[in-house]
């Protein structure tokens, strides 16, 4: 009977009740949204790179090295010399090493110079390998592999040509027009910065910058790091029978860079990670820094802890404001409901019955608002999950009805019940004679 009376009373005041429930739903939406996005971003950050034991770069802060080498955020303070890369990659502790070179872009997307080994050794998530949606890895200096977002946003397909630009801004005034690249591969979405990256051969980076400083785009005279692996022998006489692009492609096999931005290292045994890290940090030839990606990610997330707490506090304050609004609404309605309460008392209802009635009304409003907020957030995430993935490169899972979520919803209902005690106690003390007296 109590539930039926409470429902009828709320329906009688449905407009104000619905507005109050809506404000609670909005606050629940914000609070659960902040908490869920925090957890998903933390998971997304953690899955960005795996299977890499160390990242080595010029000496700087560990967070800075992680940001520019993995997340493509910021720029290095210095580079790592090619001689140092070769020396470290040939260390007995190293199973594999992949160089990366940053500094160029294509329409706002970072260009990463590396070797084909990158697609074999770079892992993300639970040691998931990079998978090609179309095509294959590059093998020459005029080929490019695109991340899924780059291909989707810029509408590139296999065989299309593109030109990269100097610098990392969205607008560049220096384009390497004389050296176009052909798309030979498009990667599957990973939910990591790989999706927003343009991958080219490391030799291409050296070639386009060296060529840019030579009149007529002659082949740069650089050192040979490995014997040429081209199927053609390019003698002086034979070069005249080939076009300019083919000649540069052959020349690219002889190129070695003067320096690289960083190197990803996989060790033969993880037991020696700290030992090799110390060896790199104490390297005599030049100042270096080696970081363990997982440790650096934990430090990065710890730095973001203040932002996380601030967002959670804002969400809680919004919720409290909504619940206080509900309390105000109940208080405002008490004077109008004096006669209703007095009639209930006159027909035999105990004062505690009236107190429970007000409490139940508040709990019902909070339940409706909390359920609406949860369902609204869950539905929106399910609807926009694909769009968020393609727009921002973030894989946000659906909102689970977990113990944590139920705890939040229980907290909301509990707070509503506590705050509703104020109008409930006032109704408990409402005199019967005052409610039934004739008002002049």
TrEMBL record:
Ranges of biased composition (kind: Basic and acidic residues): 231-252
Keywords, in A-Z order: Cell membrane, Membrane, Transmembrane, Transmembrane helix
Membrane topology, as annotated: Multi-pass membrane protein
Chain positions covered by the region annotation Disordered: 211-255
Annotated ABC3 transporter permease C-terminal domain residues: 313-429
Domain MacB-like periplasmic core positions: 15-205
Stretches that traverse the bilayer: 15-34, 310-330, 342-358, 405-426
Cellular compartment(s): Cell membrane
A GO CC term attached to the entry: plasma membrane
Coiled-coil boundaries: none
Origin: domain of life: Bacteria
Bias (Polar residues): 221-230
Protein name (database record): Peptide ABC transporter permease
Source species: Bowmanella pacifica
